[in-house]
Every structure is written in C-alpha cells, then in structure tokens.
Amino acid sequence: LACACLRERAHSYSWEDLLSMAGDGDAMEVDAEAPAPAAEATEAAEAAEAPAPAPAAAEEAPAAAAEAPAPAPAAPVIEVTPAGPSQDETCEAAVKATLDAPDNAGERIRNAAWAEAPDDVADCVELAARQLLYEALDKEDQTTAKKIVAVLVDHTVHCEQCGDRGPVLNVAHKLLEDCIDAAPSTNADGWWDLVESHKGALTENPAIFKAGKFILLRLCNSLLKRLSRTRQATLCGRILMFMAAAWPLSEKSALNMKGLCHTDNVTEFESADQFDAQNADDDFDDAGDGAPKEDYDTYSGFWSVQKYLSNPPSCFKDVKGFLAAVDVTCSALERTACTPDEFERERAAMVERQAQPMNVEPEDDTQQMLGSQKYLTNSRLLRIQLRDPQLRTQVCSQLYMVLDYLRRELESMNARDWASEPKARVRKILAGTPPTGPEAAGSLDLLLEHEVQWAAWKKKGCPPFEKEPLPEKPKQKRPYYAPPLPEVLKRKQARRDALEKKRKDEEPPLEEKCRRLASQIPTLKEHLQEWRDADDPAEDIDDEYHPRHDPVWKFRALRLVMKEKLPWFADMHDANIEVAVDKMFPDRPKRTDRPAPPPPPPKPVVKKKRVREESPPKEEDAKRRKDDRDESPRSRRE
C-alpha cells in the first residue's frame, strides 16, 4: 500500500520533470528533437558575430524584437563553492555508503551528484535516495529509511553552506513527507520523533525553511487529519507546537483572514417522534436517581444551540431563537447543578488527588483522551450528560466565548446589548461546576482579554510582528559652522529662559514653602530632648558633642522658649538653657562626672570720662556781646 501511494505521487510530476528523470537513451532522443541549451547559446553567439542583415531582414528584425519578451531582472549573485572530487562513484552509491559512515555525508553526496549530473543535481539526488527509500519501505525497514532521511538532511545543510539554492534544498522534505504518508497512523510517533530531532536544520536556517516550508506545512496538516484527536491528543499537540514554533505569527496560512466558521460541524439529534419512541418505557431510568425525565423541549433546545455555536454570526439573524435555546440550556444546567456540599466534596477530592504522585506514562490509551469528544445525542443519555462535569464545562465554555463575541460586536455596532445578561448567567454555572469550575472561569476571562487584542490585530490586516533592523548609516563629519555672535547670544538666552521656566514650573509656590517649613519646626520638648539625652548617663555621650557647645542650637532653644514658655525667661539668668531643661524634665537623670561649665568671663569695667562743656561758638558770643552793649546806658544815651 505504501509503494502504491508513492507511485501514485510520482504520476503527479509534469512531463518536463519526467523527461529530466528519464534514462540516458531517452534523454538523447529528446535532445535529437529539440536543440540543447548549449547549442542555442552557440547559435546566438554566431549570430552576434555575423554581418548586418539585408534590408528585408532588417525590416523583419524590429517586429521580431517587439514580439520577444523583455529580459527578466538579474537575480542576486550567490557564491557557490565548487564540488570536490567524486572518487568515481554514483550518487546512489554515495548515499548507500554514507548510511554506515555518516561522517561528511553531505559533502560526499554533493560531490557525487555534481560529477554525475552537474546540470540537474537536485533530481539526481532525489532519484538516488527514492530508490533506496522504496526498497527500505518494501522491506518495512524503518531504521534504514530514517537513516536515509537523516543523510539527506545533512546533505541539505551542506548544500546551503556551499551556496546552493533551489530545489536541492527541499529534497529531504519530500522524502520525509513520503515516509510519513506511507507510515500508518499508529506508527506516526516514531516518524515525528525524526522530524523533531531535525527541527533546527529544517526550520532555523532561513534558506532551507523557505525552500521547504510549504512541504512541511502540507506534511503537518495531512498528518493532523489522519490522527485521532481523542486517542492521539498528545501527538496532535506536539505537531501544533512544532508548527507554532516554526512559522511566524503573521503566517497567512494560519490566520483565517476571512473569519470563516467551521460550519461543517453539524450536530444531529432526534425528532419529536423518535424522542417519544425512545422514551416510551416509563420505567426506564438512566440516571438511577429517580429524577423526572427531561421533555422534548429541553432536549431539542439543548442540542439545537450547537448550530448557533458553530456559526456565531448567524445569531444576529435569529436572535429570539438563539436566546430561547440559551435559556433552555441554562435552565437545564441549573436544574441539574450539584449542591454546595457536593461541590466542596469534589474540590476536596481534587486536592487529595493532586497531592498524590502523578504517573508520567499513562497505563492505556484511554487516559490520553482529552476534552475534544463528539458527544452522543441519544435522548436517554441526556439526564446523565447534564450531570457530567466535563460536558457541562465544555458547553458553558462554548456559550461563554460566543456570547462575549456577540457582546463585542453589538458594542461596535452601537446596538442594544442583549448578550451580557446570559453571559453572566453562563459564567455562574461554569464557576459552580466541580471540581475546577472557578479555575476554568478565570482562565476563560484571561483568554477573552487576549482575544480582544487578537481581533484588533486581525482587523488591521495582520501586520507582521517581526521587524528587520534598520541599516546603520555611516557617520558623516559635521561641517564646521560658526554662527554670528547675535545668534549665539540669542541661543544662550533661549536656554537660560527655558531653564528658568522649568525651575519656576517645578518650584512650589511661596505658601507651600512656608507650609513645609512650618511642618519642620520641632516643639520645645522635642528640641530640649537632645540636651536631656546628652546629660543621661545611660546614653554615654561625650562632652564635646553636648548641645551646649553649639550656639546655633542654643539660639533655636531660646526662640522656642520665647514662643512657648515666655515666663521661664525670668529664671533664665544669662540665657541659661539648663534652667528650661530642668523645668521641662524635672525628673531627668544627670551626670556627675562631667565638669561644670566654666563661668562666663567678667565684664570689663569701663571708666567714664568727664566730658568738658563746650564753649559756645564765636558767632553766638559776638551776638550776645552786641546785645549787652546795646542795653548799656551809654548806648541808650547815644
């Protein structure tokens, strides 16, 4: 079956590829019918050296030149390392020899391919490797097949290092795809281990990844379609993680640019007649708890909501039907919810299970089944399913995400919000589902917060996150420029004005400064506490650090005494601060080993000098004499 699939793939090649993969005899027949590229180049060179054509030929030349296509732009030149000696062996022999001696496998295969087919190295290597790979797959020899793929990966890396470009870089991708397509799905783990072991070589090199990224993408998608999402969930997760790490976030093939929904997921359920036929036996009790059976309205409403969840935009066309189905579903889930005691017991049991050591490897395949099942819609199972925590969590999660999407769409359209109320109702049901209901609700809230940013990014056209670094500009010497003196002064004044404005903006107003200074003034008791601590024997403070030697401190103390205890000044002779300290702290301890402060120096006695009375000025004396002379008898007589 594997070989038949591979041969069927071979039929998909074009006739040019088949001719290039044909033998020497067929190639010679083709060459006889059509001119070789080398012959065409020789004829073109001879035509360039020939003399000018005749007038008739000259008239035909412009028409031929007009019909000829324009020359393609020249591709960037990549230096290619020439191949070494091939040691007279074919490419197939080189591949077979490197299976046992993988050292320098890439170099050996490249040299042999260049010696055997220098014009078509990629097809030469692919044909040689396919022949050996088919033989190994026919014999079901997976070890040899994996060695062939590993050798081809080494050859691809070596070719990229030598500067080769083109199809030669994706030969390993094609063979790997053939191997995984031929392998059964039960044996896909071993082949995927081979892909992950060569992840660095296939995805981290830009040239190799660009040459084979579409083959890798086709390989991963085809393998995901073949695998079971329930039995092989671990392998599916490994494949998805590989794709997420290999391709950038802005890869267009994984973005769903059109916003299409998975409408192929159709949930079929019973009609009314089938429901009555299934529940005709009144004695049948599936749940075993004697609870009343659910009617058809509950059954149809519960399963009909799935058609809206598979295509959320359809809810805007039938709002009443959607809200009715959501109401029926929420009512059924609320009616079958567990009691608070059952919820606490389930939570305690979960904590106890988490405390036990976890098994690394599952005992059977059933333990790998995760939450991606397709549930049965038999009406007899409805009562059991409504009490199943896993089904309740899955249905509530679907409803919660779709209702949040509808709420955001209504908000963007400025329409009436009819989705917030049922969303809060669904979240309450989800949080009350044991044993991990609160954790599931919190995870969904975080997920939907990220969804808002994701949706905004998709509306912008999914711009790439990766940005190439800007090219470094060569530093150029700045030409010397001497501005005139007025301009220099103007710039300096502008800088001063800017600094002054910044200082004024940052400086607080005068009232705030006064408020800060007032808040920093200590009280008299707080200020005199330093004197008390210096006199305390327990503090053991040296005399040189006593505040009585600090005139600034004593001045502040006098100001505080004048402000708070003005009557104390009557007892503070010669501004003795210790009197104020004794009045403030009457029971304070005192040190006796400290010498008393020296008495103030006596004031010098200043002798008062006798001040001699000044004689009146001469002008006053002359005036007084004149007046006396006028008043004399002689003058009166005269």
Summarize the structure.
With 638 residues, this protein is mainly α. The chain has helices spanning 2-10, 15-20, 24-33, 37-49, 55-67, 91-100, 105-116, 121-138, 142-162, 171-182, 188-197, 199-204, 206-226, 233-246, 272-278, 296-309, 319-335, 340-355, 382-386, 389-412, 420-431, 437-459, 485-506, 510-520, 524-535, 551-564, 577-584, 618-630, 633-637. Helix content is 59%, strand content 0%.
* Number of helical regions: 29
Shape: elongated
Mean pLDDT: 78
SSE topology string: HHHHHHHHHHHHHHHHHHHHHHHHHHHHH
Radius of gyration: 50 Å
Q: Determine the fraction of residues in helical runs and give it as a percent range.
A: 55-70%
End-to-end Cα distance, whole Å, is 175 Å
Strand content: under 5%
**Structural class of the secondary structure composition?**
mainly alpha
Unreliable parts = 1-78, 362-371
The largest sheet, given as strand count, sense and whether it forms a barrel, is: none
The number of distinct β-strands equals 0
